[in-house]
Write a structure and sequence with these properties.
Layout: H1 3-14, H2 24-39, H3 52-62, H4 69-84
């Protein structure tokens, strides 16, 4: 397992133990970077109109389409460090 993958997984665990819950915009940013880093470009159908949370998550992830998975992992790690540091 590469060092980047280990750091990414450690950041995913660290984010679960934040002392304060981030605001919704930050949560969407974390979600989108995590999904892009873990899975790549958004896939599957967009959630229905009345699934506001699902739609927001989908849209946040879709904005990162084309971003390299390694780059998304690095940005996710840096963001988590900023929140935990």
């Amino acid at each position: 397992m590469s060092d980047l993958v280990k750091q990414f997984e450690a950041a995913a665990e660290a984010v679960k133990s934040l002392s304060e819950r981030p605001d919704n915009d930050m949560l969407l940013r974390l979600y989108a970077l995590y999904k892009q880093g873990a899975e790549g470009d958004v896939s599957g159908p967009k959630p229905g109109f009345f699934d506001f949370v699902g739609t927001a998550k989908y849209d946040a992830w879709a904005k990162l389409a084309g971003t390299d998975q390694a780059e998304a992992k690095e940005k996710y790690i840096a963001l988590v460090k900023r929140l935990t540091g």
